[in-house]
Every structure is written in structure tokens, then in C-alpha cells.
């Protein structure tokens, strides 16, 4: 059944035959087009799960006998389809990652093979000291000068006072 809905200004003026007692319909009354003088003025309709009786006014429960479903051996479960799709996506992703890894390794090998390198020997790194010395644990060696551990007055002066940054 097709229902067309029009704006009230496009409707022709006429009498609403569904207004009085719902057009004698049990559920839904729809105005019918007037195609001729003998055409019905209303059409009754039923919601889902109900069917219209032959009198075209009353709706009753639709009692369609359910036929037992036969197992054809083909499972159409959405869960199985999701698992198969997940496996296919995982395999395709694995193949793409493996191909990318092989391409990167081959590219690096090819680039490394075509690069010529030169090695320079720096003799400075081979020098060693002739006289070995060891640091003593007592803090000073004989002949070294011992400095006081206190800081003088002028060293404690902050650097932002006038006269400290004259050469900067």
C-alpha cells in the first residue's frame, strides 16, 4: 500500500469521511481517492502483525503457521562472518607488513652496497702518555698548592649588582 501525503493547500476541499467513527475502521482509516461515483470513500489499514478481514474494516491477528526451518548446512550467522572477515584482514595486513619489511631490507642492502667509503687514520688517538701518573687519595700531592675551601667576600657578591658585568 502506498500512502501519499500532500500539503493542506494542495488538497481539494471536501468532506473528511474518516472523522465520524473512524470511517467504521477498527484501526487506521485512510481517505480513498474518488475515481468514480461507486468508489469507496475510505480505505482501512492494519498495523504490522494484523491482517484485514474480507469486510475491509476489521483487523485480526495474523496467524500464519510457521514452517519449521530446514538446515541447509550453510551457516549465515553474523558472528561467523565477522570471524572470517577478521582472519582475512589479519592475513592481508601480515602479508603487507612482511612485504614492506623485505623491501626495506633490500633497499638498505642495495644502498649500502653502492656507497664507497674512505677511512682516515688519525694518529692522535694512538698517542699514550710516557710517564704514568696516579691520583692519590689524600687530596694533595707533594709540591702542590693547597687552596682554602672558603669563598671570599667579593666572590659571594651577586652577578646582577652594578659593576660586575662591565665587560659583557
UniProtKB/TrEMBL annotation:
<feature type="region of interest" description="Disordered">
    <location>
        <begin position="146"/>
        <end position="168"/>
    </location>
</feature>
<keyword id="KW-1133">Transmembrane helix</keyword>
<keyword id="KW-0812">Transmembrane</keyword>
<protein>
    <submittedName>
        <fullName>Lipophorin receptor 2</fullName>
    </submittedName>
</protein>
<keyword id="KW-0677">Repeat</keyword>
<feature type="compositionally biased region" description="Polar residues">
    <location>
        <begin position="158"/>
        <end position="168"/>
    </location>
</feature>
<keyword id="KW-0245">EGF-like domain</keyword>
<feature type="transmembrane region" description="Helical">
    <location>
        <begin position="83"/>
        <end position="107"/>
    </location>
</feature>
<keyword id="KW-0675">Receptor</keyword>
<keyword id="KW-0472">Membrane</keyword>
<dbReference type="InterPro" id="IPR050778">
    <property type="entry name" value="Cueball_EGF_LRP_Nidogen"/>
</dbReference>
<dbReference type="Pfam" id="PF14670">
    <property type="entry name" value="FXa_inhibition"/>
</dbReference>
Amino acid at each position: 500500500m502506498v500512502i501519499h501525503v500532500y500539503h493542506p493547500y494542495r488538497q481539494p476541499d471536501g468532506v473528511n469521511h474518516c472523522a465520524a467513527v473512524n470511517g467504521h475502521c477498527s484501526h487506521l482509516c485512510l481517505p480513498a481517492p474518488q475515481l468514480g461515483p461507486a468508489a469507496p470513500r475510505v480505505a482501512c489499514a492494519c498495523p504490522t502483525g494484523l491482517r484485514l478481514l474480507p469486510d475491509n474494516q476489521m483487523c485480526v491477528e495474523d496467524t500464519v503457521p510457521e514452517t519449521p526451518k530446514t538446515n541447509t548446512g550453510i551457516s549465515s550467522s553474523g558472528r561467523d562472518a565477522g570471524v572470517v572477515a577478521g582472519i582475512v584482514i589479519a592475513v592481508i595486513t601480515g602479508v603487507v607488513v612482511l612485504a614492506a619489511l623485505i623491501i626495506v631490507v633490500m633497499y638498505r642492502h642495495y644502498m649500502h652496497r653502492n656507497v664507497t667509503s674512505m677511512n682516515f687514520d688519525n694518529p692522535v688517538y694512538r698517542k699514550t702518555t710516557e710517564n704514568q701518573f696516579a691520583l692519590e687519595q689524600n687530596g694533595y700531592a707533594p709540591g702542590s698548592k693547597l687552596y682554602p675551601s672558603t669563598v671570599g667576600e667579593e666572590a659571594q657578591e651577586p652577578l646582577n649588582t652594578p659593576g660586575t658585568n662591565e665587560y659583557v
